[in-house]
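User: Please run a holo structure prediction.
Assistant: Happy to. Please share the sequence and the ligand.
User: Here you go; the ligand is beta-D-glucopyranose.
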Amino acid sequence: MNQKIFCSKIGFALAASAFMPTLGHAEHLTDADIQAAELRAETVVKAMQPDEKTVLTHGIMAIPFLAGGPVMPSDAVPGAGYIAGIPRLGVPALKETDASLGVAYAAGLRKDKATALPSGLAMASSWNPALIEQGGRMIGSEARAKGYNVMLAGGVNLMRDPRNGRNFEYLGEDPLLAGVLVGHSIRGIQSNGIISTIKHLALNGQETGRHFADSQISEENARESDLLAFQIGLEIGKPGSVMCAYNRVNGQQACANDWLLNKVLKDDWKYKGFVMSDWGAVPNLEAAMRGLDQQSGEQLDSEVFFGNKLAAAAARAPAWASRLDDMNVRILTAIFASGLDKHLAKSGGVLDFDANANVAEEVAKQGIVLLKNEHGALPLEPNSKSILVVGGLATAGVMSGAGSSQVIGEGGPAASIPTGGTGPSAMFQNIVYHRSSPFAAIEKLAKGAKVRFRSGRSVSEAVAEAKKSDVVIVFGNQWSGEGFDQPDLHLPDGQDALIEAVASVNANTIVVLQTGGPILMPWSKKSAAIVQAWYPGIRGGEAIASILFGETNPSGKLPISFPASIEQLPRPRLDGFDWLEPDFIGRAPSGAKPLAINYNIEGSDIGYRWNARKNHKALFPFGHGLSYTGFESTGLKIEGLQASFTVRNIGDRAGATVAQLYLTRTPNGPQHRLAAFERVTLKPGESRLVTLAIEARVIAEYKKDSWVIDAGTYHFALGENAEALATAMPVKLSRRKFKP
Ligand code: BGC
């Protein structure tokens, strides 16, 4: 696929100026780098003593109190994981930190703070690979400066259920968009000479029963959806490691799944790096034969399988010995390719938090989505006389998602509110607000206006105040996190009633949402404007205010569909939700029924593709996002798999849009798939010829063991979003068959 199409010039200019690569070679790993690293790895493995061969294959969770108190090695940095090195052979220890949104907090053990990017869905809403790469570069530089050399970032599970508690960490529902973006995030991280991960392979679609849920799906459906996102991400990002998932896939634990790890990942995709387990996801020693290379967070498993037990198996049987060598070669290939042995991880690096926060702010600005804007309610006039801000703890800060990806910013949280969980996961059950007050930022940009705040705890107070105000900005927050799913798609804590009441008495009510995923909006018709801010990161307040006052022209587009009702979903009932306790660490409760999740219902038609198949109209469709200017696209031409057309800014403000090209029909019938995209920034009146390469695997079907493009007529249409398409253009394509 032509990756050039995804890199807007603006993004690259930004990316190039802010950071210098620290790799010893070209900024991105090439296949030649990986090949050279593999050769070196083979030589080193030959020099290993038998007892050295199980050093790299397992390691601890570097959080002692959580796991029965292993002795922390003197060189370990508190964090998600630690794998000892082999100094005799110049092999460094692996020091692992979560994750995709920044250097995580490690359950409070690490006292130094880090820069929090906006959530994955906010990043994905930018549809800007270069910006996401810059974000990756920024968080990777912080990981390095704090002494880590592996980031457990790269979450790319597709949103199969809007209630999934970890949707906020991931990049949406489309395999092309999510795959391209995760690839660029990984590239950015690895440009610091550290390893990044892609996770959680695969089909880890919900948190409920995550340790034993069985994702059932046909090979064709998996290859055309979740696996395609991983495949594209691996091609672009070339991560040193892949993290397998907690759940089962078609009956076999993902971390011991021969088909997934050996066949798909290593044979078909020719992956040369290593597979690390998720924490507490290794069922047995046999997992090694099924493709797992490293047991992570071993205290969380029932046994350390990949230590003495593995060594004994290798001493006994040649097949195990050669598998063990392969495990070592793979781990060392990743270490050498990223140069971990050359530039050793050292803590105490100096960080420019201000510059890094600027990156996070830019991501938030490009990721905030203007969902609705009636009668030009936004941007706000700086001279509105009275603005009432309601709810969302907006005077304190902005919301963030919880779990292993939790980042704590400089100065600590603005608020950390316990929700009252019990057991070991209780420490992850605090609602953390970053220090970036939307209220303060609004006040700053509102200049002459009188800006007041009401908490929203009393609806009647908010209503009384709303009546006296020119404009009401009401926040709706939905907290989510790892280890639990949303019970439904309503805003919690009576916020729907609050918004409804306020919007009923003030026609200029602007709703700002900070949510982990899609929600229902029973009050949407009453509101004048709706701004989807996701979890907007360490400068989220500033980014929100900047959009509200038009200092930034909104350009975010939804990377997911917002359903109009729960009945539109392939599974209106979330499997297991009615009988399972939320459990972060948990295994199947004794006597638990198997938790089969039938992903063949929607198959590869996730989100907007499902809606198209079922004729559902979303509340807000995939790809939707308004601007303060207007754009038009004309002159679509398609030759083979190349599309070109002109995009013009027809309004009076500079702004950016995302050109979206959809496949609408194949010779076999209607289809609905994003085939190519590019973010385009234009001055008023400016136009640009855009050329997009259509991703062949998106228009192909996976049949038996290959991708197949059947001969015949294919239809493509440009779309403002997945439901607003221009007239489709027919193109004849000849038959093509290619290997995965
Ligand atoms: C999560 C992973 C994370 C790991 C280490 C697991 O519970 O699923 O995403 O990287 O913990 O913290």
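Residues 80, 98-99, 152, 199, 278-279, 404 surround beta-D-glucopyranose (CB under 6 Å).
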